[in-house]
Amino acid sequence: MIRSILIANRGEIARRIIRTCRRLGIRTIAVFSDADRHAPFVREADGSVHIGPAPARDSYLRIDKIIEAALQSRADAIHPGYGFLSENSGFASACEEAGLVFIGPPADVIAAMGSKIEAKRLARRADVPTIPGFDGDDGRDSTLIAAGKEVGFPLLIKASAGGGGKGMRIVEDADTMARDIEAARREALAAFGSDRLLLERLIRDARHVEVQVAADHHGNVVHLFERDCSVQRNNQKILEEAPAPNLADDIRARLLADSVRLAKAIGYCNLGTMEFLLDGATGEHFFLEMNTRLQVEHPVTEMITGLDLVELQIRIASGEMLPFRQADLRINGHAIEARLTAERPEAGYLPATGRIIAWREPSAIRIDSAVETRSEVTVHYDSMIAKVIAHGRTRDEARHGLLSALDEMVVLGIATNRAFLESIVDDEPFASGRSRTRSLADCFPGGWTRPSLPPKRAEDIAAALWCWTELEQRTSTTPTPWSSLHGFRLLGSAGRPAVREVPVEIEGEQRAAQITISGDALTPVADEAGPIRIRREENLLRFAWEGGAEQGIAVVDGNQVWVRIGAVEYSAAIRNHTRSRSETAAGGSDAILAPMPGIVAEVKVRPGQPIRAGEVLIVLESMKLFLPVTAPRDGEIATVHTASGQTVPAGMLLVALAPDTGE
């Protein structure tokens, strides 16, 4: 049995592996970058090794540093988790050459299945159906454009070397194909080190179903049933469940059989996942790719089988036989997983960064998380911060358990998709088990809208919470009746309630809220809801209107207030001054601002350069996503305020256009 494992990963999957190793009595070593120095997984491992700066290319993707860390810490094996180097055949080979056990399949199998092009060829040889398309990319865009016209539109451009939606573009017609190929190549090269692409026919009415397989070094291969991963945004999964709902028995049988047959044909070993697309119109199923690693969604399989898949990986890598046969495996109930991400679904899923001020996990449910209170979420890594996994005797029981958990979960300080997940899980397509890969576009054709309060109510709540916190701080340090009223304007004679005018800014709009303070009651002026009662619960503030049912939670951190009332979540800034005219003007059409925090991947323009509306000016990278920043109109570049490699906050001025003279 392996005695010590270095985990070549971070975040929630590192913590997940540590939990199993601790139960098995296996020593764990974490590797960490500058950004993760204080992360929970580093503290929870038995040992840790610093491997470099925050950018993944300088730390988690450095094979030499990770091998050196493993040898230095006397590890027997390396577990790659998922992402980063988990499907890098060169990394698997380097582990073997260094005398380390790689907890995953052999390097040659990773190489073969890591290329979508080669994987599809192997699938066809094993008589497993694949989507019609083109896989002869020779590096010339003209070849792909010509092939695209033969495949027909709409079609899908995909990166050959990876997944997760990176390097993937839907092409509706030939007019945009050249631009889409350029963007897909750039994204694929940055994410996977290869810009090779393939084309596939686009299946509109599609389900994404995958099969978990397990294979040992003794020729035994089994499936661990299927998962449905159809609910996706930007071609990335956000909800997964097992088993797949409303799946015909004959289709399920074919998927499971095809998966085992293909795994045997390629000589697979360890855990892997066969991914398929099901055409809802024809009933056909097509092999997409194989993930030669543990999947993000592996917990739902664990919940319905009772197996620990990380333990299974370790035992297979140690040379043990599978401890069961196919006939021994049974499905117990239903499980659903939701990916909690730091992003703004209402703004095109733009990544969100910052510090988590309050984090509380729901009780009586499985949470695989990467963070805790005071954790920093940076631009350098994936946006997923936790997985919420519900299990029930039936699918409906699991779904309601997930809804309850999402409602109970507290995460304040950064924007997340928590309320968005609730909307999806409660919506009809998912509730009935009939989701498709395009369900989100159908459910929210104009985009999802974040629930909100009337502006005045939102401002009044934030102002009252901030006033209460300020009073609490002053009372604790200077407990006199006079010092506690410092900064307030008294109304009438002594003993009358005090009024505080508070400048509050929400979503760029600033107004002055007036709060009347009388004892422990704070009442917004001209608000019919009446006094707000506030109490502290550790680092959270709980508040409610006197005599009313409406209540919520909040945190105040400096001049920032984060509020949640049911599905409504928002942040407000308490300003000491009104923004200047120049600050306000920065949002005009002549100023191109960063739409999200990120790293400048490419600057494509220079001062004096003429540009056309829609032309790409800057490419931003954040959380493994690339976003082109385009020109809003025809014109000329006046100034460029950034450079490649620079980290920029949301709202920073990137490029200024010369004034439009109208000539």
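the 2nd protein, sequnce then structure:
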Amino acid sequence: MRARLLAAVAVAASLAAAAVAQNQQAPESLLPPGFGDPAPPPPPAATTPGGATVQPLPDSRPLELPLPETAPTPSPTPTPTPPSAAELARYEMPLFARRSLALIGPVGAAEGGLPADAFGAADGGFLEVLMRRLSAPLPSRWMSIALRRALVSRVDTPAGLNGADFAAERAWLLLRMGESVAARSVIQGVDTGDATPKYRQVAMQALLATADPAGLCPLADAAGNSERGWIMARAMCGSLGAAAGGSRALIADARRRRIATGIDLQLAEKVAGAGLNSRQAITIEWDPVTQLTAWRFGLATATGVAVPDTLYATVGPQVTGWRALAPAIPLADRAAPAEAAAAMGIISNAALVDLFSALDAADETPAALGAIASDLRSAYVGADVATRLGALRQLWDAGSTPEPRYARLVLTARAAARVRPSDARADADRIVAAMLSAGLDRSAQRWRGQVKEGGDAWALLELSDPDARTRLGYNAVSSYSGTGDATLKRRMFFAGLAGLGRLSAQEIESGAESLDVRIGTTNAWTRALDRAVQAGQPATVILLAAVAMQTGDWRGVPPAALYRIVAALRAVGLGGEARMIAAEAIARL
């Protein structure tokens, strides 16, 4: 087993070198340096689910609670041993209600998830290393959507892995992708009695990312006294779940022992002050704070304390997703993060439209957001074609950089689907791209034959056609120019068509040579991808495909990697995802 794990780690390291990798900031540590002063060194890295990215909270001495007075005379019978957590679980949860660690995930195959055997017989240690080292978020909206689907699916735990640990690894990757709600749903698939140190570490992250400190309470008692985060969790839970004053002694003890200081202690006190009949009134001062952490984000959001924008600039892009998904944050403050999250694949077109519809109906919406909401309403239900098209153009032209521009395509996807080809041929490129950003491939095909051959809309329709049966010649690739970087887009167009099987073997060979797309190159990543395809492991294929997209934007994804990704996804029955990823490459370059 040890030899297999070492081999898996070596292969995963080779994959990281073979794929295009770029480090991105991972979620911040639960508590910043100096949470307790002085801060002892962290436990060994083996207990951390995400490597060095999120360290466990520093150890501390056990709480020194007063002991009851000794009886005047010794008891004739020995003191009974307190029941273990496993023994207590037998009474707290009957056998029929316990969930198996062999099959974990909130979304079954019948609900849109992948099959239970989606990872097949893939080595568990290999999968964990891939997940842990994957740099997220990804540049592709549709690759992110596919990866989320794989991670939340109700799948078999690979042999040799603890189910709670495997759930934690999946949730940890989801958190780095910005998928806080999905991460929490995976975590909640494990009974608290089965919690492991890794599981508890990631569970705290997930619950803080979703601004739910009360969710920590079922795990707090079993987490051990030495971890500072759980000491503070127990202090907060004493107020949230018990009578008034239940947390005062614990908060006071934490302050005395400097378990928490500054704003971290203040936020914990504010959470405790929200408990039953509490008379605490805590004022939060952000001025001395220079770094946002998961602890600060979660507790501040849960208690309605607004986090300054300057602090959001100190964390990675995954927190954008956490903000967008946090219902406790006011709608107006969630609008910009929600648009960014839509481009990342976290927020759907329907959810984004609902948010702006609510802003449109609100009484005190800021003027700038009200104008967007008004334009969106006109794009959907404007009095005439000219009004609707004018509103669409106004929304599209407002994006100053590629990410906001693509987010506006997602926002307007269904409004664009209401436009007839005969009314807006000049806007075909953006209309077709908008529809495909939300997966409206059949609606987009209404534009086939109505767009200029060789343009972006034409290329998008060829790549996204769900009913395509005929092959194209290489002359179709060479005639594509599109907008922007024509050379790169032509190479991506070729890679997409080749991966989708739309070109013959001879055309692929000549095209690869003409465009210098080295699709025949083999390395550790391509060999691992081929093995996953041959074994029929769609979840492993998705994970390996994501490995090749560790880059800041689509310009960093090699055309040869796109070819391999599209071909592999199509080979394991994920043709829809393959088509959308191939089309997205054209739309976002």
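The first strand starts at residue 103 and ends at 104. DSSP finds 30 helices and two strands in the chain.
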